[in-house]
Amino acid sequence: MHQCLSPQPSRRAVLGAGLCFGAFGLAGGAWAETTAGRLVAAARRQVGITLAYDPAYTVLPFPNGDVPRAKGVCTDVVIRAYRDAFGIDLQALVNADMKGDFGAYPKNWGLRRPDRNIDHRRVPNLATYWTRQRARLPVSADPADWRPGDIFTAMTGGRFPHTGIVSDRTSAAGRPLVIHNIGRGAREEDALFDHPLTGHFRWKV
What we know:
Layout: H1 11-20, H2 28-32, H3 35-44, H4 74-86, H5 90-100, H6 123-132, E1 136-137, E2 151-156, E3 160-170, E4 176-181, E5 186-189, E6 197-201
Antiparallel strand pairs: 1-6, 2-3, 2-6, 3-4, 4-5
Helix pairs in contact: 3-4
């Protein structure tokens, strides 16, 4: 993929990556037991399982509804990671918040009421929910400002919202990898700065 940043990291980026992605000074086993470590591990377990991108509208069970794990969209990576790591159900949480204040959410789809089958699978809705949860951080192009377990949102192709989870691993240039599904199933790769970033969130980690 096209890289938006220079392949030569700044000294700050290298130092920051060492601090942020060296498990905050923890040994590997201790890092894995942190909340961020559990979230990243849950996202990583989807690699090789979710093999396709499928945005089709699907009627889901409620709560904890999901499409078959062999497929999904970018939001499903995040939703599944939080369920698997912590038992947190974004389907139910977003639905409850939208019922409480539907007017606070985007009107991009012409809906007049919440739809528990799809609302939580839409990036703008998740970004709104995390913002209302006071999880939003400044968007930064500096790799040192991103920690494992952070959530990014971006705009691909100028009009397609995208999201994923920041990994605890980095590229050779010091950029944090991300775990996401951008069309070929769940993957862990150097793609955080491939598209214009629209959001940075740190929630429950």
